[in-house]
Amino acid sequence: MINLTCILLLALTLAVLLVALFFIPSYISRQNKAVFEYLKENQEFMRSQFESAAKHDSHKTFVTLSLQAYERLALFLERINPPNLISRMSKPGQKVAQMQAVLLNTIREEYEHNMSQQLYVSNLAWDHLIRARNEVEMLINKVASDLDRNGDGMELARGIINKTIEDKKNPVDQALYILKQELRKNF
User: Fold this and answer.
1) How far apart are CA 173 and CA 61, in angstroms?
2) Is the pLDDT of residue 1 over 70?
3) pTM over 0.85
4) Domain ranges across the chain
């Protein structure tokens, strides 16, 4: 009887072991697939979260750079505005030719310093800025051409200011207006 009980117990153990060997691998396989799918979904979710955060940070940086560009271009226009330019750059004792060169060189340097800002404004705004710069340069050259090159530079300064007042249409004002309108529209 003990032998029969041992044999039955052994047979039952083998049956349980065979059933376990048959079902455990498929169970483990299903569990592995479920874990893999969960990890894959989690990875996709994390990737989308990261991309969203990166886009948000990128947009935030772009907005900051754009606002700085508008500020810098407004400052550029104010600095090349004839009355402001003359008050900063004129020195007693300068000749007309010297003052003309200083004014034109200052405009050129200011422009070169701010050229990269065109990336952040519309073509319309940039075109008005270029037009303002060109018209201020033409104004300086026109007034200088009517004067003796060796004359007093203050004559050039007065001539530029008077011509600006006479024209009643300052190109710098128009470019500033366009910049402000665009800034209000975009921000």
Assistant:
1) 29
2) no
3) no
4) 67-186
